[in-house]
Structures are given as structure tokens and as C-alpha cells.
Amino acid sequence: MSRALKPTTDLANRIARVYPSLSEGHRKAADYVLQSPLDAATMTIEGLAEQSGTSTATVTRFVRALGYANYADFRVALSTALKVALAPVEGLADARAMAGSVFATMATTLRQEAANLDEAIATLEEETVDRAIAMLLKARRIFIVGSGASHHVGSFLEDGLALYLQADVVFAASRGGPERAIRHMLSAGPEDLVIAISMPRYSRSTLELASFGKKRGAVLLALTDGPSSPLVGLADMTLFAPARNGFLPNSPTAAFAVADALITTLARERPDAVEALKGLSESLLWTFHY
Q: Which string of DSSP letters, residue by residue, matches 20-40?
């Protein structure tokens, strides 16, 4: 069964960038690849031409329009995209094939989450934490970017930071897609902080927004799973939250925990933290159940 190629892969993004300028024949080839990538990955150039209703010459020009030297390079890129996209499916299939009870699956998952938290603590560096907290306290504005599971971590972080910081906190990635997020970040500068959150499979839009913020002069704090994350090379500071999950693409548990720890630390370090919390508690007095 064919699966549409997700726009988080490099190949899909290449197609998206050039699609408006493609000829009708090139678009037929592009549409077939996007809708039937599993089939396309196993086809010869003649097969793709036949299935897409084009010619081998058209397919050759199409792959060159994408920036590939030849059809062989294009197939390698397509196979790589599929490997990334389908890895969680294969992992879940392998896990389901293993003997084990419902209870065992639940317990194993919780142990994995505990291991992720232990590793997050072990990789924590005092200098990085001190620098991150200092920057959060003095930043003029804080822009948060993240998608997928990281989007929920970003939303949680936005709420917490808004409570305990005087800075303007903007969850840019929730403002209607990456194009609109860029508009919100156009005024970012050296006095601002960008918090980029990304777990495997890493979102291209998050990387692009993080890079955009850096180019505007903002400081970049990354919250990601490990040293191999593409965010690490961009970031001025990185907090690690391992995201291993034996059954699913990733786990946001450690990322939520690190975000919660950031909020807690800021609540303690803010000079007027007690007064601010007192004012908040009084304003919410009649919203609680007693």
C-alpha cells in the first residue's frame, strides 16, 4: 500500500520549493512520487515515466530540477526519505511481534521513560543551566518554536514562562505555520531568545525557524534529544531530553520534564517571584474547587 511522502523530508521539501515553476509533465512525475513513494522507490526511470504518464526525458529533467545529478541519486534520496518516515512503523511491528503481556508493555514503557529522565539529569551541565536561566530572565522577548510532539512541549513552556517572566513570550510556531511564524520573528534581535524544541524525526520547519532567529541576532536555546540532533550545531546553548521509545517515533516525557524544571527554576530565581505568585493566586482564588 502506498503512503504519501510527508513534507518533513528533504525530498518532499525540494519538490514543494520547485513545484510552482514545474511544467505540466514535471508535475505529473512529482504528484506520482508524492502519492506513491513506496512504489516509485522500486521503479526504473522507464517505470516511473510509464506510471506517471510522462517520458523518460521528462523524468530526467524533473530530477535535475530537484537538484539531483541523475535518476540514481534521486532514488537514493527517495529511499532515505522512506527509511526515516517508516522507521517507527517497522519498530512498532517488531515490538508487536515480540511475546509479552499488556502489563509488560506498560511497565517497559515506563522504565524507558525513567531511563530518559535519568539521562537528562546526567547530561545536565551547570554552566549551561546558569547561562540559560540568566538569558531567560534578561531577554526582551522569547520566541518558542516546535512542531509535532514538540509543539505540545512548547505550548506548556509558553504558559509557564508567561507566568514568571516579564518578557514578551511568543509561541511563534503556533501562529499559523512557518511562514507566519517568520513574520512574528522578523523583529528578533540580540536582546531576544529563541527556544527551539525538536525530537526525532526532526522538523525541517523548526530548524529553519531556529536558523532564521539566529540570523536576526537572537540567542538560540535548543531543547532536543541528543548530540546528534541537527539543532545542536545551530544552538548557543543546548539542554538534552532523550526521547527514546521502543514502540513509537519518540517520547516527549523528558522534554516536558526539562521544560517544567526550567519553569520551576525561573519561579525561584525571579527577584519578585513570591510577590508575583501571590498576585496570581489571589486573582485565581475563586476559580478553584474547595
A: GG--HHHHHHHHHHHH-HHHH
Residue position matching grid coordinates 520566541: 143
Cell of 30: 512529482
The model carries a pTM of 0.69
Q: How many helices (H) and strands (E) does the chain have?
A: 13, 5
Classify strands 193-198 and 168-171 as parallel, antiparallel or unpaired: unpaired
Q: Is 202 exposed, middle or buried (0-12, 13-18, 19+ CB in 10 A)?
A: buried
Q: What share of the chain is helix, strand, coil (3-state, %, to 5)?
A: 60, 10, 30
The position carrying cell 516546535 is 146
The torsion region of residue 53 among left (phi > 0), alpha (psi -120 to 50) and beta comes to left
Burial 122-141 (b: 16+ CB within 10 A, else e): eeeeeebeeebbebbeebeb
Residue with cell 475563586: 286
Q: Are 199 and 255 in contact (CB under 8 A)?
A: yes
158 close to 167: Cβ distance less than 8 angstroms: no
- Encode pLDDT of 153-171 as tens digits: 999 999 999 988 888 999 9
DSSP lists the bridge partners of residue 238 as 222
Question: How confident is the model over 93-140, as pLDDT tens digits?
Answer: 555 555 567 888 888 889 999 999 999 999 999 999 999 999 999 999
Q: Are 252 and 149 in contact (CB under 8 A)?
A: yes
List CB contacts of 162: < 8 A, sequence separation 6 or more: 169
